[in-house]
Amino acid sequence: MGAYHWRECDPNSAAFNPPLVARYEMLLRHVPAGRVIDVGAGDGYLAGRLASVCQEVVALEYEPSGVELAARMLSDRANVSVMQGSAYDIPFGDASFDCAAMADVIEHLDDPARAVSECARVLRRGGVALFTTPQWRPDRVWDTRHVQEFKPDALCNLLAPAFASIEMRYAWPRFWSDAYRHPIGWRALRWAGRAGFNPFRDESASPARHCQMLAICRVPRR
Fold it and tell me: For residue 208, what are the β-bridge partners?
């Protein structure tokens, strides 16, 4: 699919995707300045956004083709390094980062608990781990490539063994998410997003009527 995150977050692109833009904006609102690792970096779009607010960014990607693509897209970011590696065995020592981020990665993993534990291991004291994932819905599957889609309680239960503090935030109001599935709503919301109105940005502390989840995790358990 190439650098599709870059295309879909570009308002001038025919593939512009307002929900995807809102996901990254929600995550970025909670990222501390400092040293950050983007685990499962894909084509490097999030790492590129992090580079503008963080001192140093490591983009970690498992697939060699993704590493090559991310390196090419991020070649002009002096504070970003791209490397190949697994979320199950992050190639850094304990307490190496101020933040670990996984943007819609956890639902693709066969062993998400192991990846969560690794994120906790590499966090410094006072650090934060950020995990985004779509909220499970009874009426649809978000993506057939997902291994598991989480309810809020299930996600918290997965994260709790690795973190003593978990704060949940939610975006993508269900009304707009349902409208986006229909051709008329899809066209209208893309037009509105280009004009500066993106209702998917609405952030709430309540899971009701929202479709995207962000877990803000602190106090890693060693």
Answer: none
In terms of residue numbers, what domain contains 170?
4-220
- On the question of pLDDT at 67 being above 90, the answer is yes
CA dist 195 → 151, 188, 192 (Å) = 33, 11, 5
- Residue 4 banded pLDDT, cuts 50, 70, 90: very high
Q: Which residues contact 86 (CB under 8 A, 6 or more apart)?
A: 62
- Cβ atoms of residues 50 and 32 within 8 Å: no
The answer to whether the predicted template modeling score (pTM) of the entire model surpasses 0.70 is yes
Q: State both tokens at 147.
A: 């291994």
Structure tokens at 62: 């498992």
Sign of dihedral through CA atoms 106, 112, 115, 120?
positive
CATH classification at residue 69? 3.40.50.150
